[in-house]
Amino acid sequence: MTKTKGTLVLFRHGQTDYNKQHFMTGLHDIPLNEVGEGQARDAGASIAGFVFDKAYASTLQRAFNPAAIALENSGSNDHLKNPDGTWNVEKRPEIVEGDSGDFTARNKLTDPEILAYPRAYNIALPNGESDEQMVARTKKFYDEEIMPRLERGETVLVASHSGIMVAFEIAIGTKPVPTEDIWSNRQRVPNAAPVVYEYEDGKLVNHYQLPRQPAKPATSGPKP
User: Fold this and answer.
1) Is 79 a catalytic residue?
2) Is residue 97 among the annotated active site residues?
3) Would you say residue 220 lies in a domain?
């Protein structure tokens, strides 16, 4: 009996100036910097050959714009272009980065209040969000929107954020629910490095990170 094969490709946005300065970004709608735009083009080269049935991104420009740039540079997804040349990428609020509240735009490595604040999976940041809340909304999106597509055998792209990438791991089941906050004792999620999850009949059978591929030199950028 033929198995129904679905594929999910996830990647974090490219670098921003806040990333470079180690600032907590949260819901600030900061754009990619020049390095980040190059990383998004490289992500497109990495996913060349994947033909996506659906593309999603966070509502924040640092995730939505890399999705458009990556699709443009993939060379295999022009069917997702709108008649006006923009890209048909659905913006979803469920996969915006965790709300860092009062800590937004402050250095997470040196700010004494951030360093002293108790961190746990279920403790929200001041006037912000807990990891538990972030994972809950990501899992709902995964269960209700992504899984039905994978069960139908579709190939899906999602561009989001570092915290959401970890939240997806928990939702998918490749990472256990932590007792500490999800940032503790984990490897840093690289910018614009696509990760592939392969499914058969709705069950995860394999997952791996794609090797980074250099994109061709940019000519003109895509319309988001």
Assistant:
1) no
2) yes
3) no
Q: Is 149 a member of any domain? A: yes
One of 97, 129, 132, 169 is an active-site residue; which one? Answer: 97
The CATH number of the domain holding residue 91 is: 3.40.50.1240
Instruction: Give the number of domains in the chain.
Output: 1
Task: Per-residue pLDDT tens, the chain, 224 aa: give them.
Answer: 789 999 999 999 999 999 999 999 999 999 999 999 999 999 999 999 999 999 999 999 999 999 999 999 999 999 999 999 999 999 999 999 999 999 999 999 999 999 999 989 999 999 999 999 999 999 999 999 999 999 999 999 999 999 999 999 999 999 998 877 776 544 578 999 999 999 999 999 999 999 888 877 654 455 56
Provide CB contacts within 8 A for 10, sequence distance 6+.
Answer: 158, 159, 160, 165, 168, 194, 195, 197
Q: Is 146 exposed, middle or buried (0-12, 13-18, 19+ CB in 10 A)?
A: buried
